[in-house]
Structure formats: structure tokens, C-alpha cells
């Protein structure tokens, strides 16, 4: 039998926790359920994580890194701002459509963290990351299209996150691709309206 390193076991436990949470919900992701899913002994959990809260943080970080990298389509440098913005938003949306269960889990993790004493900081860090990613995406769109935003970037990032977060949750509920795409294009139109050619 091949001996697995602590890092390998940690990775296996994170991925196992995601599978258990998708299947059974966050509350169902007991340490026993997670190690059973990973095919590891119970002691492996305590060797890799100090607490269930540390595992939850790792799960949130893993999903964020996998699904919420800055969303800008490649190969559009110098293209019109409308093309750059729509390409970026649709790149983001395709990630949502390809992994709906993981995105649904992020909402459950947020609610769980907000309701548990001492875990609210997990939700704050989660949304702080979302804001950074949204801001980075807007910065990259502006660079590619050679424009600047007429709305202060912190405000535009928060507004954009609110729109995309709401569109995502609504789509997870009704799975209406047509209306989601139309709403996404409406948001793209707004972003185009607050862009102007970059000053020299």
C-alpha cells in the first residue's frame, strides 16, 4: 500500500468534504462522513486539520480558486469594450453552468458560517475574496478594451458582485438559461455605459 503524505491526505479530505456537502449538505459533513468518503482513518482528519472550521475554510478557498478566477476571455486585447465585457461575463457564466452544485454549496456555506458562533469571519473572507476577484476582472476588462471606468472601482466592483451573485442564485433556483443570458447582457450594457476611452 502506498503511503500518502500529509498534503495528499489533506487534498483528499478537502475533495471528499466537497462531495459530502454537495450530497448531504454542510450539516451532514461530519468528520466521520468526510474520512469515510476519502477512504481514510478518522485519525487522518485530526492530523491534517485542527478543526472542522479549518476544513470549511479550506473547502471555501478550494471552490473559490476553482470557479472564481478573474473572468476575462483570452484573445480580446484591443477589441471594442462591448465585446470585451460580454466575453468576460460569459466566461464567468460558463463556469457557473458547468459546476452548479459547487456554486449552490457556496451559498449554503455562507449561511452556515453566518449562523454559527465564531464562524462569521469565514463568510466575510469569502465575500472579500469575491470582491477582489470582481475588481480584478473589471481592471483587466478595462486594460484589454483600453478604457477606464467612470464609476469608482470599489463601488463598481461591489455593484457588479451584487448583480452577479443575484443572477447566480436566481439561476440556481430556476435554471432559466434564456433569461439568465438576457440579464447578463443587460449588465454588460450597463458596464459599457460607464466606460470611457482611457486617458493618455
Automatic annotation (TrEMBL):
Keywords of this entry: DNA-binding, Transcription, Transcription regulation
Residues in the DNA-binding region annotation: 30-49
Keyword field contains Magnesium: no
Protein's name in the database: HTH tetR-type domain-containing protein
Pfam families: TetR_N
One term of GO molecular function: transcription cis-regulatory region binding
Superkingdom classification of source: Bacteria
Residues of the HTH tetR-type domain: 7-67
InterPro entries reported for this sequence: Homeodomain-like_sf (IPR009057), HTH-type_TetR-like_transc_reg (IPR050109), HTH_TetR (IPR001647), Tet_transcr_reg_TetR-rel_C_sf (IPR036271)
Amino acid at each position: 500500500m502506498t503511503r500518502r503524505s500529509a498534503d495528499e491526505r489533506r487534498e483528499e479530505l478537502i475533495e471528499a468534504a466537497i462531495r459530502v456537502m454537495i450530497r448531504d449538505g454542510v450539516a451532514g459533513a461530519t468528520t466521520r462522513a468526510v474520512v469515510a468518503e476519502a477512504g481514510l482513518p478518522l485519525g487522518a482528519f485530526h492530523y491534517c486539520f485542527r478543526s472542522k472550521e479549518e476544513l470549511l475554510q479550506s473547502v471555501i478557498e478550494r471552490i473559490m480558486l476553482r470557479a472564481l478566477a478573474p473572468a476575462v476571455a483570452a484573445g480580446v486585447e484591443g477589441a471594442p469594450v462591448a465585446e470585451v465585457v460580454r466575453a468576460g461575463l460569459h466566461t464567468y457564466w460558463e463556469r457557473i453552468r458547468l459546476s452548479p452544485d459547487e456554486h449552490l454549496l457556496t451559498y449554503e456555506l455562507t449561511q452556515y458560517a453566518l449562523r454559527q458562533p465564531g464562524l462569521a469571519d469565514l463568510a466575510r473572507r469569502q465575500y472579500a475574496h469575491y470582491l477582489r476577484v470582481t475588481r480584478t476582472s473589471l481592471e483587466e476588462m478595462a486594460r484589454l478594451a483600453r478604457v477606464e471606468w467612470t464609476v469608482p472601482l470599489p463601488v463598481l466592483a461591489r455593484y457588479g458582485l451584487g448583480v452577479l451573485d443575484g443572477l447566480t442564485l436566481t439561476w440556481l433556483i430556476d435554471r432559466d438559461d434564456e433569461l439568465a443570458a438576457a440579464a447578463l447582457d443587460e449588465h454588460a450594457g450597463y458596464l459599457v455605459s460607464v466606460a470611457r476611452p482611457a486617458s493618455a
